[in-house]
Amino acid sequence: MKYSVVAGYFEKLEGTSGRLQMTEILATLLKETPKADLPTLAYLMQGKLRPDYEGVELGIAEKLALRALGTASGCGPEKVREAYIKAGDIGSAAQSLLASGRGQQEALFPEQLTLARVYGSLISIARTSGGGSVESKLKELVSLLNDATPLEAKYILRTSMGVLRLGVADYTILDAAAVALLGDKAHRKALERAYNVSSDLGFVVQVAAEEGLGGVERVHPQVGRPIRPMLAERLPSAQAILDQIGGEVAVEYKLDGERLQMHKDGEKVELFSRRLERITYNYPDVVGYVKAHVRSRRAILEGEVVAVNAETGEYLPFQELMHRRRKHGIEETMKRYPVAINFFDALFVDGKDATGKPYSRRRSELERVVEETEQTRVVTSKLVKTAGEMEEFMEVAISEGCEGIMAKNPGGAYQAGARGFLWIKLKREYSRELTDTIDLVIIGAFHGRGGRTGVYGSYLLAAYDAERKVYPSVTKVGTGFTDADLARFPKLLRRYESHVKPPDVESNLVPDIWYRPRVVIETIASEITLSPIHPAAMNAVREGSGLALRFPKFTGKVRDEKGPEDATTVKEIQEMYSMQKRVMSKAKGAGPP
Ligand code: AMP
Hints:
Elements: H1 3-14, H2 19-32, H3 38-45, H4 62-73, H5 77-87, H6 90-101, H7 115-127, H8 133-146, H9 150-161, H10 170-182, H11 188-198, H12 201-217, E1 231-234, H13 238-245, E2 249-254, E3 258-265, E4 268-272, H14 284-293, E5 298-307, H15 330-336, E6 339-349, E7 352-353, H16 359-369, E8 376-378, E9 381-384, H17 387-399, E10 404-408, E11 419-427, E12 438-447, E13 456-462, E14 471-477, H18 483-493, E15 497-498, E16 505-506, E17 513-515, E18 520-524, E19 527-531, E20 546-550, E21 553-558, H19 570-590
Parallel strand pairs: 1-11, 6-8, 14-16
Antiparallel strand pairs: 2-9, 2-10, 3-4, 3-5, 5-6, 6-7, 10-11, 12-13, 12-17, 12-18, 13-14, 15-17, 18-21, 19-20
Bound molecules: adenosine monophosphate (AMP).
């Protein structure tokens, strides 16, 4: 398939905002795509190159993209930079520079780019690392740009910098695939399920194209391929949870560690993080525990790995786990910072899919297959019927070092990839003030006043608007950072620096430097307020106002197990806002007249 066709459709999508029209455009494109190119195209539409769990990360640095554009257009660095700042986007800058700059120089026999070639080059750019990698990435990119039309160059550069931003949500792609490949939009549900259990959109569209609906329905969890994690809603009180679930509720300790999805196939064990990255390497001890103490040959289990005190076995805070995030000397680190794994779900046992079974059945399977030891624990749980019982359980959980509790509907299936009320988290002080943590994406930084040079004093943070796939700002945070944090943050963020506002970011404030939304940090705030400045949930609660955090503070946690799309969503912030209003009006009602 010619890349020009793809670029043409991308351009059409860019000019469209309605979901229905987008679906139509995507469906036409999918119909026109040869089967062999479908997986590639599916990844590119998602702004990816491979499924997340393969860890092929897009996103060359701004500097490299500008150099490549300079070489390909024959323009000097000043001119390129000027065009970039003026256009506010690398793609549009490339399009205009190449259109005007090439003029007479245009190659007489430009080679027509195919989708396969563009994709191959992008993959090789993403996979190149180590010494000399910058030069080889540059060469590869320039060679693509030399054969590209201005329009193609626009999308090649955007894709390679990781700022493609077609604005299509995964479910829009699934809608389009249902129409184009299965002939009926109603089959989107089947596609979605297959996607949620395989985490691989390319694979799913390929199955749909080759085997039809039957094939899609036969997609089951597979050891070695991560399942998109089920997520929890939040409610303000034990009573609200009981009202929501009704009857009996299973409550579990909510531990403060890192979520692991453990895949076991005989002697082979793989570990995946919450964002589906393969992190087997960080936990060789957990690999050993799973091999030794999971009594099922082929299984997929979930649990929270928590740092523990070597002497007493007590739980330690999340930060202790960060020592594990390193490439070298893991054996030594492992001894110094021991962990315990706390299993909380069984998704696949003895070679069989368990995701469709109710929680209570999965829990008994879990208890059956996990041999409990100091390092392998099945998370503490209890069935409760009253708010009093639930609160009591919560007190005990907190006294043992937990963040709070997870309430689970005993009859609920494992809903891969969904956030719903089958799981509800409750942290201690919801009912008093806003104390749930909020995970936000860093999108910019401001120089501190009179502070050290080269160090930023505060950061601009955004939530994730999952519907529109954009990151609107919700707050500016300057408290909670230690000197060490302030020194390391610019280094951590350097590769995401942008001298123009990234296309998927929304903010009325202009920071001293922008960042492409990649790094997620945890914050707390005193409350959520209406704000005319921050665009998150603009007009949703009140005309002319968005929602913002009041008195935000960095908690010290960089959530590097979370990707930007795992940040707290605008919808969640809206829910927290209305929850807070309910609590406040109740408190007012309870007080003296
Ligand atoms: P949050 O990240 O605050 O939305 O909370 C959800 C996370 O809590 C999950 O992704 C798990 O990492 C963690 N967690 C801790 N204990 C449990 C549990 N018993 N059941 C489910 N998730 C748990």
